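Question: Hello, beginner here. Any chance you could explain the protein record under this note? Any guidance would be welcome.
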Amino acid sequence: MSAAWRIARRELRGGLRGFYIFLICLALGVAAIAAVGSVRAGIEAGLAREGAAILGGDAQAEFTYRFATEEERSWLESVAEEVSETVDFRSMAVAGNERGLTQVRGVDELYPLYGEVVLDPPMDIASALERRALPGGVMQPVLAARLGLRVGDTFTLGTQQFELRALLQQEPDSAGAGFGLGPRTLVTLEGLQGSGLITAGTLYDTQYRLRLPAGTDLEALENAAETRFAESGLRWQDSRNGAPGIARFVDRLGAFLVLVGLSGLAVGGLGVSAAVRSYLEGKLDTIATLKTLGATGRVIFTVYFIQVGILSLIGVGLGLLLGALLPLALGPVIEAQLPVPAVFTLYPGPLVEAAIYGLLTAAIFVIWPLARAQDIRAAGLFRDIAGGGMSLPRWPFLLVIAALSAVLIALAILFSGAWTLSLGAAGGILAALAILAIMAGLVRISARRLARSRVVRGRPALRLALGAVGGPGGETASVILSLGLGLTVLATVGQIEMNTRKAISQDLPEVAPAYFFLDIQNDQLPDFLEIAHAQDGVGRIDTAPMLRGIVTRINGQTARDVAGDHWILRGDRGVTYAASQPDSAELTQGTWWPDDYSGPPLVSFAAEEGAELGLSLGDKLTVNVLGRDIEVEIANFRVVEFGDMGINFVMILNEAALAGAPHTHIATLYAEEAAEGPLLRTLSRAFPNVTAIGVRDAITRVSEALGGLAAATSYGAAATLVTGFVVLIGAAAAGTRRRVFEAAVLKTVGATRGRILASFALRSAILGAMAGLVAILGGALAGWAVMTFVMEADYSFQAISALTIVSGGAVASLLAGLAFAWAPLAARPARVLRSRD
């Protein structure tokens, strides 16, 4: 070890020449993972610090379709210093002939308990909402612009007029409110009393935000609330997790981006391996001399492993520095784009995680070339043949590489918390590398045969390019592996993004409803149907009773203890009733109840969701509807196609089970596009309490919500591609020595500079195109897997994205090849050939 350390230290005195690509590749991969982890930690810290403001209180009790009872309100007031009551629902805001869907929040005089509502013009929220001639209201600028409203104008919610006092610029608890289909409008609870919008059976939620005494034990208080009101349908939330939906989204997005970063690190690992191999080729004389003087293969391996280890620490350190500083430098910009607060500072956890990933990746990719170099004999080294051959390292080294790879995958699972995603990403990367390696071999064989065929006769530049691609010791494998993997990641993200957008905006059913109508009162339904059917261009109208229920127990046990965090259990779900089997209901198991059934409550459950929850025929579910627990038995399972945009319910109960429960109706209306505007105006005037949701508007809102996710994944893939380009440049730079000798020989036999340059350009373009073709295959397979098994959606190959990948790979490889072609062209043949004597 002392001799190896001494030799390694002396060689490092020569500087970092030959290792710049090594350092850049390693630093970029580590920086990407560190930066993503730091941003995620910053968001989590912001959510924790501002949890009370995001939630609107230290804790919150929420009810569906009802306000708190006197007993519930009394208990909440007994444990809190202040209790603020709000109500949240969707409605139509009307101004003249203009109408717009809005998410209305009715607030009391204590709102907000934490944070501040920012208005334009500046004023406090109490002044903006106070009753003068009319009650006041504020709304987001996009809704005011849509309705043509200015401050001082009036608008209508239901049957109540309001005066627009200001535009809503910032709502302190907006992040905890979840996804809404319409912009926000704030009014007072008192102002809503004359609107006709808050009545029995209409769709609304109430929230009671609590300001708690300092030092309150939130966990103990949550347990007390859930124990005391276990059967009331109360949903508890506190500042420990003020925005659970956003926190869950951040965790999943962060895990996904870390795995994309690992893909980038794998691409960088290929560059690290190529850089080590190129460096060792430049040290042939040194290695040959050391072996001639008696140095063993183990000593040679140790010498260069020490050098690479020191440089790996430098590369990881540079990556950590970059990954830590980028979020700090760009913190204000990032925070301005986020819907939640973030605290950007140095977080040791993500940096340690990135360092471990970087060091393991470096070890995995440097052992291979070092192990191969130590097995070459001194005579072979003196003959300059180290770059040839494809022999494998000895089995102990292969075992070490496999063990380190397993550790890396295990840590990815541990750190990301998503074992299926981690295993899928690891399998995808390994499969992509295997396919790329096979492809590189096939390209070499095919190029070698084409170079000798009659097809290329009379085309010396093409023949020379094919000969170089198919020859031993070239950059074929390096370019196809590095650029191909980078392009594969980008192609995968491109296929997923375009398929997701297509699924939302294009893959609608052939006949989709124009509007969903909510909160149609029982006595309004006949008139609603009569007026709607009388309008020109109106086709089918479907209606159904509408209630909301929370699944609290499965077979007597707490539902979450049985089925985990399934989306069915995260909140209230739509519930309806039916006497006879609907025409569209396709049963997969069980039978429907008789039309006159009046026995114990029964339910028809969605088959796919039932299987995910582990339910069987005869199982008992406890569903809380309007604070009343109903225990229902599963009578049948049926197919539910949410993608048809029609009326679909996870749960349909028998009619007698919900007898007497106040409820409203919903309707889906199918109409010609030209009839949609007049229809909406007519129905809104006749039924001001009814809320209309336009399908096109809903699709636009969902598409906008997905835009941030698509952008984030695209940025992650772009970072991987940048690393791939760096590796490509490194491969081109490493091949300069070989090209200089090649150009010298060609010049000697009479080739012109133009022909040599054309040969170099064709070679680079061929390699880039081959890498792009493999990326198309890999991206298509990975995109299909994600869409089919993760997103459970249809997949179709996106040709535009694929063609962009192919052309981008060819152009990138061509530019890199040309950038390093000038030195070989300028070299003098006599000097070059004399030095290789």
Observations:
- The radius of gyration is 33 Å.
- Confidence is low (pLDDT under 50) at residues 384-390.
